[in-house]
Amino acid sequence: MGFIPRNDPFICEQCGASVPPAPQTFRNHCPSCLTSKHVDDRIPGDRLAPCHGLMPTVSYEGVDPTKLDLIQQCQTCSLVRRNKIAPDDNLDTLFELHQLPR
């Protein structure tokens, strides 16, 4: 049997928010505080990474706030990953964290 990606609900270990599954893709960060967890190894949704460190958003790339890439870094192993912003992400949090113009 082939790889079956996972898209499970979770409780954010950073802020405690209850995070539902993503409707059209794989949820890879908390929409409230924009923190991810280092659970995926090579393929989004594989949940095979042994690290499991928290990955806060440390920067972003892009100019359109609805199409930004979040840059996240693992606090345990220092891996840096890029994640696309999700439609239900709290943009106020992103603006506050990174002083984006509104």
Structure described in brief:
The chain has 102 residues and is mainly beta. It has one helix spanning 91-98, and strands at residues 10-11, 18-19, 36-37, 54-55, 57-61, 69-73, 80-84.
Structure, described:
- This protein is mostly beta strands and 102 residues long.
- It has one domain (11-102).
- 8% of the residues lie in helices and 23% in strands.
- The protein is built from 1 helix and 7 strands.
- The protein has a 3-stranded antiparallel β-sheet with strand order 5-6-7, with no helix packed on it. A two-stranded antiparallel sheet has the order 1-2.
- The longest helix is centred in the last third of the chain and has 8 residues, at 91-98.
- It is globular.
- The protein starts with 9 loop residues before the first strand and ends with a helix.
Using brief descriptors, characterize the structure shown.
102 residues; mainly beta; three-stranded antiparallel β-sheet; 1 helix; 7 strands
